[in-house]
Write a structure and sequence with these properties.
Blueprint (H helix, E strand, L loop, with lengths): L2 E4 L6 H12 L2 E4 H11 L2 H12 L5 H18 L2 E4 L5 H13 L6 E6 L2 H15 L6 H15 L2 H7 L3 E5 L4 H13 L4
Parallel strand pairs: 1-3, 1-4, 2-3, 4-5
Helix pairs in contact: 2-3, 4-5
Bound molecules: adenosine monophosphate.
Adenosine monophosphate (AMP) binds next to helix 2 and helix 3.
Length: 190
């Protein structure tokens, strides 16, 4: 089973992905985490993406597609991937479909976490105060939301056309959102 957790920055994708890793033994593939690890390691890739990420812009499709491709065998061996923060552009979604098809696999379900913009801003203000994550500052967060609306939201009709999209209210408490995701995963589909 391959699942995409879809939604704007700070919608709770990472939190819910980690819970699914614990409960279903799937592998979380978060391009944001992979890129932050590259920066922390001081690699050449990290050096190339640090400024882009800090500003809240998207890094190039080629970079994230390659990061994902490297991790697909591991996810396959575990029985499935939870894509978190990927794909973020139509080009990434098409590349993902092609890579999975090549491996005899596919995306089974896309769960969209719906959270309104004001709630996202409030969440991120709290997170920035706690973690100091550089791209959670208000300026960069606005750029990240803009990138989501301009480049990532257009994926919704793409997945809707493929009959893979399920919407979940992401405004509630973590446990309530988790229960709604479980329900979506268990529901008979199409
Ligand atoms: P995230 O942790 O998913 O919010 O990602 C943090 C930052 O990493 C984003 O604001 C982008 O700069 C970069 N990033 C992560 N995933 C992608 C992606 N799929 N495509 C382009 N940039 C990405």
């Amino acid at each position: 089973m391959n699942l995409i957790l879809f939604g704007p920055p700070a919608a709770g994708k990472g939190t819910q992905a980690k819970r699914l890793v614990d409960s279903r033994k799937m592998v979380q593939l978060s391009t944001g985490d992979m890129l932050r690890a590259a920066i922390a390691s001081g690699s050449e890739l990290g050096g190339r993406v640090a400024g882009i990420m800090e500003r809240g812009e998207l890094v190039s499709d080629e970079i994230v597609i390659e990061l994902i491709e490297q991790r697909l065998p591991e996810a396959e061996a575990a029985g499935g991937a939870i894509f978190d923060g990927f794909p973020r552009t139509i080009a990434q979604a098409q590349a993902l479909d092609a890579m999975l098809e090549h491996r005899g696999s596919r995306i089974d379900l896309v769960i969209r976490l719906k959270v309104d913009d004001q709630a996202l801003m409030d969440r991120v203000a709290g997170r920035f105060a706690e973690s100091g994550r550089p791209d959670d500052n208000p300026e960069s967060f606005k750029v990240r939301l803009g990138a989501y609306n301009a480049q990532t939201a257009p994926l919704l009709p793409y997945y809707q056309n493929h009959k893979k999209l399920v919407e979940v209210d992401g405004m509630g408490a973590i446990d309530a959102v988790a229960a709604a995701i479980d329900e979506a995963l268990e529901a008979p589909r199409w």
